[in-house]
Amino acid sequence: MLTKIAEDYLTALADELAISESRYEQARRSYVSLGDWLHRSDSTVAEYNPQVYVQGSFRLGTAIRPLNDEEEYDVDSVCLLQSLGTKDLTQRELKALVGSEIKAYHKAQSMVKPVREGRRCWVLDYADGAQFHMDIVPSIPNAARQRLLLEARGMDLKWSETAMVITDIESPVYQELSDNWQRSNPKGYAEWFKQRMGEVFERRRRMLAESIKASVEDIPDYKIRTPLQSAIMILKRHRDGMFEGRYDERPISIIITTLAAHSYNGEEKISDALYSILSRMNHFIEHDGHHCIIRNPSDPLENFADKWPKHPEREAAFFEWLRQARQDFETLAIQVERHRLIEIIQPRMGAVADKAAVRLGPPPRTMLQPATAVIGAAASTPAFPNTPREPTSPRRFA
Hints:
Layout: H1 4-17, H2 21-38, E1 50-54, H3 56-60, E2 73-81, H4 91-108, E3 116-117, E4 122-125, E5 132-141, H5 143-152, E6 164-166, E7 182-184, H6 186-211, H7 227-242, H8 253-263, H9 270-280, E8 286-287, E9 292-293, E10 295-296, E11 299-303, H10 312-333, H11 338-349, H12 352-359
Parallel strand pairs: 2-5
Antiparallel strand pairs: 1-2, 3-4, 4-5, 5-6, 6-7, 8-9, 10-11
Helix pairs in contact: 1-7, 1-12, 7-8, 7-9, 7-11, 8-9, 10-11, 11-12
Protein backbone atom coordinates (compact mmCIF):
# COMPACT_ATOMS: atom_id res chain seq x y z
CA MET A 1 0.00 0.00 0.00
CA LEU A 2 1.17 3.50 -0.80
CA THR A 3 0.66 5.72 2.23
CA LYS A 4 -1.03 9.07 1.86
CA ILE A 5 1.97 10.90 3.29
CA ALA A 6 4.30 9.16 0.81
CA GLU A 7 2.02 10.16 -2.06
CA ASP A 8 1.90 13.77 -0.86
CA TYR A 9 5.66 13.78 -0.35
CA LEU A 10 6.32 12.73 -3.96
CA THR A 11 4.12 15.60 -5.12
CA ALA A 12 6.05 17.98 -2.86
CA LEU A 13 9.35 16.70 -4.28
CA ALA A 14 8.21 17.51 -7.81
CA ASP A 15 7.00 20.96 -6.74
CA GLU A 16 10.32 21.68 -5.05
CA LEU A 17 12.30 20.60 -8.12
CA ALA A 18 10.20 22.57 -10.61
CA ILE A 19 11.73 25.77 -11.92
CA SER A 20 9.64 28.92 -11.80
CA GLU A 21 7.57 30.21 -14.68
CA SER A 22 9.78 33.31 -14.65
CA ARG A 23 12.78 31.10 -15.51
CA TYR A 24 10.92 29.64 -18.49
CA GLU A 25 9.92 33.14 -19.55
CA GLN A 26 13.51 34.31 -19.14
CA ALA A 27 14.71 31.53 -21.43
CA ARG A 28 11.96 32.32 -23.95
CA ARG A 29 12.92 36.00 -24.06
CA SER A 30 16.55 35.07 -24.61
CA TYR A 31 16.08 32.91 -27.69
CA VAL A 32 13.37 35.21 -29.11
CA SER A 33 15.77 38.14 -28.73
CA LEU A 34 18.50 36.23 -30.56
CA GLY A 35 16.05 35.27 -33.30
CA ASP A 36 15.04 38.91 -33.76
CA TRP A 37 18.71 39.85 -34.01
CA LEU A 38 19.31 37.34 -36.79
CA HIS A 39 16.41 38.85 -38.76
CA ARG A 40 17.58 42.48 -38.49
CA SER A 41 18.21 44.38 -41.74
CA ASP A 42 22.01 44.04 -41.75
CA SER A 43 22.12 40.43 -40.56
CA THR A 44 24.50 38.22 -42.53
CA VAL A 45 22.14 35.23 -42.17
CA ALA A 46 18.69 36.85 -42.63
CA GLU A 47 18.56 35.69 -46.26
CA TYR A 48 18.72 32.06 -45.07
CA ASN A 49 15.50 32.38 -43.07
CA PRO A 50 16.95 31.69 -39.60
CA GLN A 51 14.79 30.14 -36.90
CA VAL A 52 15.82 30.02 -33.24
CA TYR A 53 13.96 27.81 -30.81
CA VAL A 54 14.52 26.02 -27.54
CA GLN A 55 15.13 22.28 -27.28
CA GLY A 56 15.96 19.82 -24.51
CA SER A 57 14.51 19.88 -21.00
CA PHE A 58 13.23 23.47 -21.25
CA ARG A 59 11.16 22.53 -24.30
CA LEU A 60 9.97 19.27 -22.71
CA GLY A 61 9.08 20.89 -19.37
CA THR A 62 11.42 18.58 -17.43
CA ALA A 63 14.08 21.10 -16.38
CA ILE A 64 14.93 21.00 -12.67
CA ARG A 65 16.53 23.41 -10.25
CA PRO A 66 20.35 23.20 -10.04
CA LEU A 67 21.82 21.30 -7.10
CA ASN A 68 23.21 24.55 -5.67
CA ASP A 69 23.51 28.28 -6.31
CA GLU A 70 26.84 27.81 -8.08
CA GLU A 71 25.32 25.67 -10.85
CA GLU A 72 23.54 27.20 -13.83
CA TYR A 73 20.49 26.37 -15.89
CA ASP A 74 21.51 25.02 -19.28
CA VAL A 75 19.13 26.35 -21.94
CA ASP A 76 19.63 24.36 -25.14
CA SER A 77 18.55 26.04 -28.36
CA VAL A 78 18.81 25.58 -32.12
CA CYS A 79 19.68 28.09 -34.82
CA LEU A 80 18.24 26.58 -38.00
CA LEU A 81 19.14 28.26 -41.31
CA GLN A 82 16.16 27.00 -43.26
CA SER A 83 17.29 27.95 -46.78
CA LEU A 84 20.63 26.15 -46.70
CA GLY A 85 21.60 22.51 -47.27
CA THR A 86 24.63 20.28 -46.90
CA LYS A 87 25.63 20.91 -50.52
CA ASP A 88 25.89 24.67 -49.86
CA LEU A 89 28.58 24.79 -47.18
CA THR A 90 30.69 22.76 -44.78
CA GLN A 91 30.00 22.29 -41.09
CA ARG A 92 32.92 24.57 -40.30
CA GLU A 93 31.53 27.31 -42.54
CA LEU A 94 28.08 27.04 -40.96
CA LYS A 95 29.58 27.15 -37.46
CA ALA A 96 31.57 30.29 -38.36
CA LEU A 97 28.59 31.94 -40.08
CA VAL A 98 26.33 31.54 -37.06
CA GLY A 99 29.19 32.26 -34.67
CA SER A 100 29.93 35.66 -36.16
CA GLU A 101 26.31 36.71 -35.64
CA ILE A 102 26.27 35.40 -32.07
CA LYS A 103 29.44 37.36 -31.30
CA ALA A 104 27.90 40.48 -32.80
CA TYR A 105 24.77 39.94 -30.70
CA HIS A 106 26.95 39.45 -27.61
CA LYS A 107 28.65 42.80 -28.26
CA ALA A 108 25.39 44.64 -29.01
CA GLN A 109 23.87 43.35 -25.76
CA SER A 110 26.98 44.43 -23.80
CA MET A 111 27.35 40.95 -22.36
CA VAL A 112 30.43 40.63 -20.16
CA LYS A 113 31.38 36.97 -20.27
CA PRO A 114 32.98 35.96 -23.61
CA VAL A 115 31.24 33.77 -26.17
CA ARG A 116 32.47 30.16 -25.85
CA GLU A 117 32.68 27.55 -28.58
CA GLY A 118 31.49 24.06 -27.73
CA ARG A 119 31.83 20.86 -29.69
CA ARG A 120 28.47 21.32 -31.43
CA CYS A 121 27.38 24.77 -30.30
CA TRP A 122 28.15 28.33 -29.32
CA VAL A 123 27.60 29.25 -25.68
CA LEU A 124 26.27 32.58 -24.40
CA ASP A 125 26.93 33.08 -20.69
CA TYR A 126 24.52 35.52 -19.12
CA ALA A 127 25.20 37.70 -16.07
CA ASP A 128 25.77 35.92 -12.76
CA GLY A 129 22.36 36.96 -11.43
CA ALA A 130 20.63 35.25 -14.35
CA GLN A 131 22.15 31.87 -13.36
CA PHE A 132 21.89 30.38 -16.84
CA HIS A 133 23.73 30.02 -20.11
CA MET A 134 22.35 29.28 -23.57
CA ASP A 135 23.84 26.72 -25.96
CA ILE A 136 23.07 27.57 -29.60
CA VAL A 137 23.48 24.69 -32.06
CA PRO A 138 23.91 25.73 -35.74
CA SER A 139 21.81 23.51 -37.99
CA ILE A 140 20.23 23.12 -41.41
CA PRO A 141 17.20 21.09 -42.61
CA ASN A 142 17.58 17.42 -43.49
CA ALA A 143 14.01 16.23 -44.15
CA ALA A 144 14.56 14.97 -47.70
CA ARG A 145 17.64 12.90 -46.90
CA GLN A 146 16.06 11.58 -43.70
CA ARG A 147 13.05 10.32 -45.64
CA LEU A 148 15.33 8.48 -48.04
CA LEU A 149 17.27 6.85 -45.20
CA LEU A 150 14.11 5.74 -43.40
CA GLU A 151 12.35 4.54 -46.55
CA ALA A 152 15.36 2.42 -47.49
CA ARG A 153 14.99 0.59 -44.18
CA GLY A 154 11.21 0.41 -44.16
CA MET A 155 10.93 2.66 -41.09
CA ASP A 156 8.27 5.12 -40.00
CA LEU A 157 8.51 8.56 -41.66
CA LYS A 158 6.21 10.24 -39.13
CA TRP A 159 8.69 12.75 -37.72
CA SER A 160 10.98 13.15 -40.73
CA GLU A 161 9.66 16.57 -41.81
CA THR A 162 11.42 18.31 -38.90
CA ALA A 163 14.71 16.40 -39.25
CA MET A 164 17.89 18.48 -39.37
CA VAL A 165 21.68 18.10 -39.21
CA ILE A 166 24.05 19.90 -36.85
CA THR A 167 27.69 20.93 -36.68
CA ASP A 168 30.24 18.85 -34.78
CA ILE A 169 33.91 19.85 -34.68
CA GLU A 170 34.87 16.21 -34.06
CA SER A 171 33.22 15.06 -37.29
CA PRO A 172 35.73 13.57 -39.79
CA VAL A 173 34.11 15.66 -42.52
CA TYR A 174 33.86 18.89 -40.49
CA GLN A 175 35.82 20.86 -43.10
CA GLU A 176 34.48 19.06 -46.18
CA LEU A 177 31.35 19.29 -48.28
CA SER A 178 29.46 16.16 -47.28
CA ASP A 179 26.01 14.78 -46.53
CA ASN A 180 27.42 12.88 -43.56
CA TRP A 181 26.53 15.33 -40.78
CA GLN A 182 25.28 14.50 -37.28
CA ARG A 183 21.49 14.07 -37.46
CA SER A 184 19.03 15.55 -34.97
CA ASN A 185 15.30 16.20 -34.65
CA PRO A 186 14.42 18.08 -31.43
CA LYS A 187 11.07 19.28 -32.77
CA GLY A 188 10.02 15.78 -33.70
CA TYR A 189 11.09 14.44 -30.32
CA ALA A 190 9.16 17.18 -28.51
CA GLU A 191 6.01 16.37 -30.48
CA TRP A 192 6.42 12.66 -29.72
CA PHE A 193 6.87 13.48 -26.03
CA LYS A 194 3.73 15.61 -26.02
CA GLN A 195 1.81 12.72 -27.56
CA ARG A 196 3.05 10.45 -24.77
CA MET A 197 1.61 12.89 -22.22
CA GLY A 198 -1.63 12.41 -24.12
CA GLU A 199 -4.98 13.68 -22.98
CA VAL A 200 -3.64 14.52 -19.52
CA PHE A 201 -1.69 17.44 -20.95
CA GLU A 202 -4.52 18.74 -23.12
CA ARG A 203 -7.08 18.41 -20.33
CA ARG A 204 -4.92 20.34 -17.87
CA ARG A 205 -4.29 23.00 -20.45
CA ARG A 206 -8.02 23.42 -21.08
CA MET A 207 -8.73 23.58 -17.35
CA LEU A 208 -6.14 26.33 -16.85
CA ALA A 209 -7.50 28.29 -19.79
CA GLU A 210 -11.02 28.07 -18.39
CA SER A 211 -9.90 29.09 -14.90
CA ILE A 212 -8.32 32.33 -16.14
CA LYS A 213 -10.87 32.88 -18.93
CA ALA A 214 -8.28 32.63 -21.70
CA SER A 215 -8.14 30.68 -24.94
CA VAL A 216 -6.26 27.38 -24.93
CA GLU A 217 -3.89 28.71 -27.61
CA ASP A 218 -2.79 31.49 -25.24
CA ILE A 219 -1.55 29.04 -22.61
CA PRO A 220 2.18 28.34 -23.13
CA ASP A 221 3.27 24.75 -22.67
CA TYR A 222 5.52 25.59 -19.71
CA LYS A 223 2.49 26.51 -17.59
CA ILE A 224 1.33 22.89 -17.68
CA ARG A 225 3.03 20.10 -15.76
CA THR A 226 1.90 16.51 -16.13
CA PRO A 227 2.64 13.50 -13.89
CA LEU A 228 5.05 12.24 -16.55
CA GLN A 229 7.09 15.43 -16.42
CA SER A 230 7.08 15.44 -12.61
CA ALA A 231 8.19 11.82 -12.43
CA ILE A 232 11.06 12.49 -14.83
CA MET A 233 12.17 15.47 -12.74
CA ILE A 234 12.27 13.32 -9.60
CA LEU A 235 14.21 10.57 -11.37
CA LYS A 236 16.71 13.03 -12.82
CA ARG A 237 17.47 14.53 -9.41
CA HIS A 238 17.77 11.04 -7.90
CA ARG A 239 20.28 10.27 -10.68
CA ASP A 240 22.19 13.50 -10.03
CA GLY A 241 22.58 12.76 -6.34
CA MET A 242 23.57 9.15 -6.87
CA PHE A 243 26.28 10.01 -9.42
CA GLU A 244 27.49 13.30 -7.95
CA GLY A 245 31.08 12.06 -7.95
CA ARG A 246 30.74 9.90 -11.07
CA TYR A 247 29.44 12.39 -13.63
CA ASP A 248 30.79 10.59 -16.72
CA GLU A 249 28.99 7.37 -15.79
CA ARG A 250 25.60 8.76 -14.91
CA PRO A 251 22.64 7.82 -17.14
CA ILE A 252 22.06 10.66 -19.58
CA SER A 253 18.78 12.57 -19.32
CA ILE A 254 17.60 11.67 -22.82
CA ILE A 255 17.71 7.96 -21.94
CA ILE A 256 15.76 8.45 -18.71
CA THR A 257 13.27 10.74 -20.45
CA THR A 258 12.72 8.42 -23.42
CA LEU A 259 12.25 5.25 -21.37
CA ALA A 260 9.99 7.08 -18.92
CA ALA A 261 7.81 8.47 -21.70
CA HIS A 262 7.45 5.01 -23.25
CA SER A 263 6.48 3.61 -19.84
CA TYR A 264 3.90 6.27 -18.98
CA ASN A 265 0.30 5.05 -19.22
CA GLY A 266 -1.59 8.30 -18.72
CA GLU A 267 -1.61 8.12 -14.91
CA GLU A 268 -3.23 11.13 -13.23
CA LYS A 269 -1.08 11.14 -10.10
CA ILE A 270 2.67 11.68 -9.82
CA SER A 271 3.03 8.64 -7.56
CA ASP A 272 1.18 6.37 -9.99
CA ALA A 273 3.28 7.62 -12.90
CA LEU A 274 6.55 7.21 -11.01
CA TYR A 275 5.93 3.62 -9.94
CA SER A 276 4.61 2.63 -13.35
CA ILE A 277 7.71 4.09 -15.01
CA LEU A 278 10.15 2.43 -12.62
CA SER A 279 8.54 -0.96 -13.09
CA ARG A 280 8.48 -0.84 -16.88
CA MET A 281 11.26 1.37 -18.25
CA ASN A 282 13.75 -1.44 -18.90
CA HIS A 283 11.10 -3.17 -21.06
CA PHE A 284 11.73 -0.57 -23.77
CA ILE A 285 15.40 -1.35 -24.14
CA GLU A 286 15.94 -3.49 -27.23
CA HIS A 287 18.83 -5.88 -27.81
CA ASP A 288 20.23 -7.01 -31.15
CA GLY A 289 22.06 -10.00 -29.71
CA HIS A 290 25.16 -7.99 -28.96
CA HIS A 291 24.25 -4.49 -27.80
CA CYS A 292 21.43 -2.53 -26.15
CA ILE A 293 19.35 -0.24 -28.33
CA ILE A 294 17.35 2.73 -27.06
CA ARG A 295 15.95 4.28 -30.21
CA ASN A 296 15.36 7.98 -30.69
CA PRO A 297 11.58 8.01 -31.29
CA SER A 298 11.96 10.89 -33.77
CA ASP A 299 14.84 9.17 -35.62
CA PRO A 300 14.75 5.38 -35.25
CA LEU A 301 18.18 5.15 -36.88
CA GLU A 302 19.73 6.82 -33.82
CA ASN A 303 20.56 4.78 -30.72
CA PHE A 304 20.76 6.79 -27.51
CA ALA A 305 22.78 3.92 -25.99
CA ASP A 306 25.36 3.89 -28.77
CA LYS A 307 28.16 4.81 -26.33
CA TRP A 308 27.50 1.81 -24.08
CA PRO A 309 29.59 -0.72 -26.07
CA LYS A 310 32.65 1.55 -25.88
CA HIS A 311 31.88 2.50 -22.27
CA PRO A 312 30.33 -0.59 -20.65
CA GLU A 313 30.51 1.14 -17.27
CA ARG A 314 27.70 3.43 -18.48
CA GLU A 315 25.42 0.51 -19.22
CA ALA A 316 26.24 -0.97 -15.80
CA ALA A 317 25.61 2.43 -14.20
CA PHE A 318 22.15 2.68 -15.76
CA PHE A 319 21.00 -0.62 -14.32
CA GLU A 320 22.70 0.17 -11.01
CA TRP A 321 20.72 3.41 -10.87
CA LEU A 322 17.46 1.70 -11.84
CA ARG A 323 17.87 -0.90 -9.08
CA GLN A 324 18.64 1.80 -6.51
CA ALA A 325 15.71 3.98 -7.61
CA ARG A 326 13.35 1.02 -7.36
CA GLN A 327 14.67 0.17 -3.91
CA ASP A 328 14.46 3.75 -2.61
CA PHE A 329 10.96 4.49 -3.88
CA GLU A 330 9.63 1.06 -2.95
CA THR A 331 10.81 1.65 0.63
CA LEU A 332 9.47 5.19 0.61
CA ALA A 333 6.00 4.05 -0.48
CA ILE A 334 5.16 2.28 2.78
CA GLN A 335 6.37 4.91 5.24
CA VAL A 336 4.02 6.67 7.63
CA GLU A 337 6.53 8.88 9.44
CA ARG A 338 7.88 12.01 7.82
CA HIS A 339 11.42 11.68 9.13
CA ARG A 340 11.67 8.24 7.54
CA LEU A 341 10.67 9.65 4.15
CA ILE A 342 13.53 12.12 4.39
CA GLU A 343 16.05 9.53 5.60
CA ILE A 344 15.28 7.18 2.71
CA ILE A 345 15.51 9.69 -0.09
CA GLN A 346 18.06 12.20 1.22
CA PRO A 347 21.22 10.19 0.32
CA ARG A 348 20.27 10.50 -3.37
CA MET A 349 18.10 13.64 -3.41
CA GLY A 350 20.09 15.90 -1.07
CA ALA A 351 18.65 19.10 0.38
CA VAL A 352 15.49 18.87 -1.72
CA ALA A 353 14.37 16.01 0.55
CA ASP A 354 14.11 18.38 3.53
CA LYS A 355 12.61 21.22 1.49
CA ALA A 356 9.88 18.92 0.16
CA ALA A 357 8.97 17.95 3.74
CA VAL A 358 8.64 21.62 4.66
CA ARG A 359 6.18 22.05 1.79
CA LEU A 360 3.90 19.49 3.44
CA GLY A 361 3.34 21.76 6.41
CA PRO A 362 2.89 20.50 10.00
CA PRO A 363 3.04 16.70 10.30
CA PRO A 364 -0.49 15.30 9.90
CA ARG A 365 -1.91 12.26 11.66
CA THR A 366 -0.56 9.28 9.74
CA MET A 367 -2.79 6.63 8.27
CA LEU A 368 -2.68 4.05 5.51
CA GLN A 369 -4.70 4.72 2.39
CA PRO A 370 -5.93 2.30 -0.27
CA ALA A 371 -3.28 1.52 -2.84
CA THR A 372 -2.90 4.25 -5.44
CA ALA A 373 0.14 3.01 -7.33
CA VAL A 374 -0.53 0.02 -9.50
CA ILE A 375 2.58 -1.85 -10.57
CA GLY A 376 1.90 -4.52 -13.16
CA ALA A 377 -1.33 -6.32 -13.80
CA ALA A 378 -2.44 -7.33 -10.33
CA ALA A 379 0.07 -5.77 -7.95
CA SER A 380 -1.16 -4.39 -4.64
CA THR A 381 2.15 -3.01 -3.38
CA PRO A 382 4.75 -0.90 -5.16
CA ALA A 383 7.23 -3.75 -5.50
CA PHE A 384 9.46 -3.99 -8.52
CA PRO A 385 10.60 -7.05 -10.46
CA ASN A 386 13.81 -8.66 -9.20
CA THR A 387 14.17 -11.18 -12.01
CA PRO A 388 17.14 -10.90 -14.37
CA ARG A 389 16.65 -8.41 -17.19
CA GLU A 390 15.47 -10.06 -20.39
CA PRO A 391 16.33 -7.77 -23.34
CA THR A 392 13.79 -7.66 -26.13
CA SER A 393 14.36 -8.09 -29.81
CA PRO A 394 14.53 -4.90 -31.91
CA ARG A 395 11.11 -3.50 -32.64
CA ARG A 396 9.69 -0.25 -33.92
CA PHE A 397 8.18 2.18 -31.46
CA ALA A 398 4.66 3.44 -31.88
